[in-house]
Write a structure and sequence with these properties.
This protein has 691 residues and is of the alpha/beta class. It is built from 23 helices and twelve strands. Helices cover 56% and strands 10% of the residues. Belongs to the etk/wzc family.
Length: 691
């Protein structure tokens, strides 16, 4: 059996809500009225007033000087920072103090009156008014700042340099005053900030300028003292001395060359041997006299003596020249060393002097810059302008921004309607009854043979007069349809013994049994209506005034004596009696089986009105003797789980269910459920065409 419960039937959902329209309308009206009363009588009026402030990112200076304190940037982060600044506790604290908000009941909990309709008012009525708490002045200011922040909104419209400062209050005048006061406080705060920054800058520049002036004086004095303590005349004189050192070094190189030559000449003199020497050897001395005397030393002893004397004289002269040159070299080296040391000392002094002069000049430049900025700051003091200006002052609102009576009324009404719809759906879910034949057929897996509308009677004893007088009603047509479906269920063999049962009491099976017996009798059939519920004897309540004897297994009455014909209905009736013995034992006895067998022989149809299957086992016992078993289910009353349990009892007993009957259908409600019954609505709609 396929289950489609997971699918949502929107049509059914709408019909369910529509069935609860009066509940929804009532709750909508009640909630709407409560919302209207709250908005007009309970809720406090709130007025919102907004002041507009614009940011001037490029301001002209009163003097043609660089601004000492920079202005605001037009970048979004800077604008967001200003929003936080406007909402800052420091700024709001100034406004609280300036406007004396600590003495305003709206911002001071000690002065505020508690509304009897508020949570605190209800608590005070239940628990009593608590002792008032004492607040310090600082706590009152903090509370006032918190409440002011809760009533403050600051927005920056996109692509603009504008701030909208809105303040809400219970008074239109107060909200306007606070919005304008906060805007002006913000502008004044900018001026105050710039003044404070200017004073701090001037103080810093003044102190730093004095320090730099002292440093400059010390630097200049250090230059003078150092210049006076050194022997350096000028950088030009140092350059001349460096040139002199170079010239002396050149002379030293020349002397070293001469010494080398003279050492070589002296070596030649010392190694000369007149005996072995040749004319070329004498020529190497580059001495004209020796060259003239050398050829004569071999012939004349006097010439040899003169040559030897001259040679010794020249050798001594060479020795003397060498020593003289070496002495000059030593003197020159000492002079160069002294001059180089003097140049090195003067160079160090010159570098130190230049460093002192540079430091003095740098200190002088910094001192000049700070002195200039100090003078500019002193000139600019008092000329600063705020970066914001009041573009549009707040005006008193003509009406309160909240509560919005129409919106609150509409929303509460919608809430009531939603609650009503929810209750209607919840009621529908809790019912869990079966409303259509298709639902019943899907649940049981058996055909629905009939759909019987509710009989238009208020008491059970009114059923027989109704059946006698009203044979052309939707109810009776539905019974005829049940009769036809039952007889055609097995065309080869019409059922003789027909058992009528249900899951629980009150499902209309007895009414259906009587009506079916009357309908079958109308076809000329011989029909016996037998009471199967001998525990409660419900069937007899429908036949008030009919004189019959009840069937009891202890009686010795014959079958003919136990039954009675009902005048005007055309069928016989056999009632039961409340028994002392167990009813199940009697129904299981051979005596009861013989009774059913005799009824089969005498009647075309025997309808047994059996008790429900869930409370007792009687119906399942009687069902063993039945040719057809009909199962009645009360429309929109019997829960699905109860029906399933009843069907399971029949199935577990090995009985075969012939069909189901959907009973006690309310035709008008059935239309709203979307399950129009054939005779519950179609008959009423088309019966005039056949009347």
């Amino acid at each position: 059996m396929e289950n489609s419960n997971d699918e949502i039937d929107l049509g059914q959902l709408v019909r369910t809500v529509w069935r609860g329209k009066w509940l929804i309308a009532a709750l909508m009206l009640v909630f709407g009225a409560l919302g209207f009363l709250y908005a007009t009588k309970v809720a406090e009026r709130v007025y919102v007033s907004t002041a507009t402030v614009s940011i001037e990112s490029n301001q002209s200076q009163a003097t043609d000087l660089d601004a000492l304190v920079g202005g605001l940037s037009a970048e979004q982060p800077s604008l967001n920072t200003e929003i936080f600044l406007i909402r800052s506790r420091q700024l709001l604290r100034r406004l609280v103090v300036a406007e004396d908000l600590t003495n305003d009941p709206e911002f001071n909990p000690q002065l505020a009156e508690v509304s009897p309709f508020s949570i605190a008012g209800v608590r005070n009525m239940v628990l009593g008014v608590p002792e008032p708490r004492a607040y310090s002045e600082e706590e009152l200011i903090r509370i006032a700042v918190d409440r002011l922040r809760d009533r403050l909104t600051v927005t920056n419209p996109r692509q603009s340099l504008v701030f909208e400062i809105g303040v809400s209050s219970g008074s239109a005048e107060k909200s306007t005053s606070l919005a304008n006061a906060l805007a002006q406080t913000y502008i004044n705060d900018q001026l105050l900030y710039k003044e404070e920054q200017s004073v701090e800058a001037i103080e810093f520049l003044a102190v730093r300028t004095v320090e730099l002036q002292n440093e400059l004086n010390e630097a200049e004095l250090a230059v003078k003292d150092f210049a006076a303590g050194i022997e350096l005349v000028s950088p030009e004189a140092l350059i001349a001395k460096n040139r002199q050192v170079k010239e002396l070094r050149d002379r030293l190189v020349a002397l070293e060359a001469i010494i080398t030559q003279r050492q070589a000449l002296l070596s030649m003199f010392n190694s000369f041997d007149p005996v072995t020497a040749t004319q070329d050897d004498v020529a190497d001395f580059d001495n004209r006299i020796l060259a003239q005397l050398f050829p004569t030393i071999g012939t004349n002893a006097g010439d040899r003596a003169r040559f030897t004397d001259m040679f010794d004289l020249e050798r001594g002269r060479a020795q003397s020249d060498l020593e003289q040159t070496q002495s000059q070299k030593a003197t020159l080296e000492v002079a160069i060393s002294n001059l180089e040391e003097e140049v090195a000392n003067e160079s160090r002094d010159l570098l130190t002097l230049q460093q002192l002069q540079r430091e003095s000049e740098a200190t002088g430049e910094i001192y000049g810059y700070f002195l200039t900025r100090l003078k500019e700051a002193e000139v600019q003091q008092g000329t600063q302008q705020a970066d914001a200006r009041l573009l549009s002052p707040a005006v008193e609102p003509l009406r309160a921004s909240s509560p919005r009576v129409m919106i609150i009324t509409a929303l509460t009404g919608i809430l009531g309607a939603m609650l009503g719809a929810g209750l209607a759906l919840l009621r529908e879910m809790n019912k869990g009854g079966i409303r259509t034949a298709s639902d019943l057929q899907k649940l049981a897996g058996r055909s629905v043979l009939g759909q019987i509308p509710m009989a238009p009677i208020k008491k059970r004893d009114k059923l027989l007069p109704f059946l006698k007088a009203k044979s052309n009603t939707p109810f009776y047509e539905a019974v005829r349809n049940l009769r036809t479906s039952l007889l055609l269920a097995n065309p080869k063999a019409e059922p003789c013994v027909i058992l009528m049962t249900s899951s629980v009491p009150g499902e209309g099976k007895t009414t259906t049994s009587i009506s079916l017996a009357h309908s079958l009798a109308g076809m000329g059939k011989s029909v016996l209506l037998m009471e199967g519920d001998i525990r409660k004897n419900t069937l007899g309540q429908y036949f008030d005034g009919v004189q019959v004897k009840a069937v009891d297994h202890a009686d010795s009455m014959t079958f003919a004596e136990s039954k009675v014909s009902v005048d005007g209905l055309g069928f016989d009736l056999m009632l039961g009696v409340r028994m002392k013995a167990n009813a199940a034992d009697f129904l299981s006895s051979q005596e009861f089986k013989d009774l059913i067998a005799e009824a089969r022989e005498k009647y075309d149809h025997v309808i047994i009105d059996a008790p429900p299957v869930l409370p007792v086992t009687d119906a399942r016992i009687i069902g063993q003797q039945a040719d057809a078993i009909l199962f009645a289910v009360s429309w929109d009353s019997t829960r699905t789980v109860v029906v399933e349990a009843g069907l399971a009892e029949i199935s577990n007993s090995g009985l075969s269910l012939t069909g189901l009957i959907l009973t006690k259908i309310d035709g008008k409600k059935a239309k709203s459920y979307g399950g129009a019954t054939r005779y519950g609505s179609y008959y009423g709609e088309y019966s005039k065409s056949y009347s």
